[in-house]
Design goal:
The structure is a homodimer.
Chain A: E1 12-21, H1 28-40, E2 45-52, E3 57-64, H2 67-75, H3 77-90, E4 91-107
Helix pairs in contact in A: 1-3
Protein name (chains A, B): ABM domain-containing protein
Organism (chains A, B): Paramylibacter kogurei
InterPro entries (chains A, B): ABM_dom, Dimeric_a/b-barrel, Jasmonate_Hydroxylase-like
């Protein structure tokens, strides 16, 4: 399975979530996998890209059709529980940015 | 040094660059470091967040004040050379998305 999200025609939304894991990551991996699957089943989901280094810094960018899709996903009850666990246990620090994608392309060209 | 970018007041721009390294990464690490320093010296630079896993999938998000800052950085001559090396040698695949940040926050709250 590709680790790249599709490239639909803009505009659409990106949620850029950067997070440093804490030392207490018990239950994190299973929850992250579950949330990935749950997100993919939501209306307006376009795709996700995610990576994390050995130091525990991860960047996950999820892509969504419109504001309604973002609002829906943020409020899904199992996701609310995961957010709470993240705040209270798994994340030492995080930033979340909502951004409207204006243009996009893939490469390398000519290969 | 923090691996998180600052949170200036939106709107501003995010360049979301997701890339899978190829097997030929000779010279890549040194160039990546150099480009990070060069980007930070450009007008309109706001910050950068970057991480890569052991499989070679990296996500780098750089933040910029406005379109003029993006256009300038894309055309800096040393950066053009790095882009060419990326296309021809270092990257198996990549996507680049330009997005306008509408809102942002950090957490966890209440700690």
């Amino acid at each position: 399975m590709s680790r790249f999200a599709p490239l639909p025609e803009p505009p659409y939304y990106a949620v850029i979530f950067t997070a440093q894991l804490s030392k207490d990551t018990q239950g994190y991996a299973a929850m992250a996998e579950k949330m990935g699957e749950l997100a993919a089943s939501q209306p307006g989901y376009l795709g996700i890209e995610s990576t994390r280094d050995a130091g525990g810094l991860g960047i996950t960018v999820s892509y969504w059709l419109d504001e309604a899709a973002l609002t829906n996903w943020k409020a899904v009850s199992e996701h609310l529980y995961a957010q709470k666990m993240g705040r209270e246990k798994w994340y030492e620090h995080y930033t979340l940015r909502v951004a409207k994608v204006e243009r996009a392309y893939a490469g390398p060209k000519g290969r």
